[in-house]
Design brief:
The protein is mainly β. It has no helices and 13 strands. Strands 11-10-9-8-7-6-5-4-3-2-1-13-12 form a 13-stranded antiparallel β-sheet, with no helix packed on it. The radius of gyration is 13 Å and the shape is globular.
């Protein structure tokens, strides 16, 4: 199993070998190179037209509207029952 690596400059090296980017939108949110837009209020507009939300869990993590939960220790509990981790890369980015 490979890892996705997100660098401090917003470059995403995906597990499948593809490369994406994250760029600021100028209003506190970000755009991704696939056309998704995460706004500063936690609304995620997917490139497929979907709309979801990210809300604080009150303990330093977040819930997503699809039922996923990212805890403050970097554990991601997927809505499908999967469990993965997000860890710092030591250079301002992280692996997931």
């Amino acid at each position: 199993m490979g890892f996705t690596h997100i660098t401090s400059n917003g470059t995403i090296f995906n597990e499948d070998g593809s490369i994406s980017t994250i760029t600021p939108d100028g209003m506190g949110g970000v755009f991704t190179s696939d056309g998704s837009h995460l706004t500063n209020d936690g609304t995620l507009f997917g490139s497929d037209g979907s709309i979801s939300t990210i809300t604080p869990d009150g303990m330093g993590g977040v819930f997503t509207s699809d039922g996923s939960h990212l805890t403050n220790d970097g554990t991601l509990f997927g809505s499908d029952g999967s469990i993965s981790t997000i860890t710092p890369d030591g250079m301002g980015g992280f692996f997931c």
